[in-house]
Amino acid sequence: MKKFIFILVITMALFLTGCENNEVESNIFPLAIGIETEEESRFHMYAAYPDLEDPDAADDALSKDAYWEESLDNLSEGSSLMSKESSRNADMNHLKVLILDVQMLDDAENTEALVQFFREKSDIAWNSYVLLTDGEMEEIFSEETQLNSCLGIYLEDLLEGWENLRYDSLITVGDLVSQYYNRNEILLIPLVSIEENQPLIDSFAVVSGLRMTAEMSLDEVFESNTNTLLLR
């Protein structure tokens, strides 16, 4: 249902032209966000959003991404810089996936900055799925990726296509924030990498106390008796 609503919004954006104050036309809709650390306590944020200015967008609005990236001192600067550089407001309410570099979970200050960002961004979708990657963020958010849809839609479909996992077992932004305060559960978070210019998920990070402690293959997770990615 949420995907249908978003497609409807994008379709409206393509046909509602000539209205200077139209809210849909003045927005960009990041469907995938990536965050990694840099030296000197800095962050690097990536975004992929439907390229509505592409000539083929009228035929398939969700077939191609535009990309944005920037180094930040503070994560809260991300959406404002994205809006400034695109001349459109960055609307995070339709976010599908958040991809974090595993190093974001290795430092307490990084984790605190991440949670603070979520709490300050009232428009961000807390039901967005969380994935991890290990040093491959630049390759994931790249025009070299060969997909038949936007990155966020592609990854969301990949995650929800696992029939032998419960729909509600995938970790969301809300789950991650909850664990920052409670830390009473072990999370299994999908690890995404790039192979032949396509995102691939073939393993999961075992995250305890918001720290990655081990790795499990996709087969090991599917073959386990637990059948949930939230272990109590």
Describe the structure.
This protein is an alpha/beta fold and 232 residues long. The longest helix is centred in the first third of the chain and has 14 residues, at 2-15. The two termini are 30 Å apart. A five-stranded mixed β-sheet has the order 4-3-2-6-7, with helices on both faces. The protein has seven helices and eleven strands. The chain is 29% helix and 29% strand. Residues 12-22 and 227-232 have low confidence and may be disordered. It has helices spanning 2-15, 77-86, 108-120, 137-140, 151-160, 173-182, 218-223, and strands spanning 27-28, 32-38, 42-50, 65-72, 89-90, 97-101, 129-133, 186-195, 198-208, 211-217, 230-231. A hairpin with a 2-residue loop joins strand 9 (198-208) and strand 10 (211-217).
Unreliable parts: 12-22, 227-232
The major pleated sheet works out as: 5 strands, mixed
Mean pLDDT: 82
Q: What pattern of helices and strands is seen along the backbone?
A: HEEEEHEEHEHHHEEEHE
Shape, principal axes of CA atoms:
globular
Spatial order of strands in the largest sheet: 4-3-2-6-7
Oligomer: single chain
Class computed from helices, strands and strand pairing: alpha/beta
Radius of gyration computed on alpha carbons: 17 Å
User: What portion of residues belong to β-strands?
Assistant: 25-35%
Number of helices: 7
Helix content: 25-40%
Calculate the terminal CA-CA distance, rounded to whole Å. 30 Å
What's the count of strands? Answer: 11
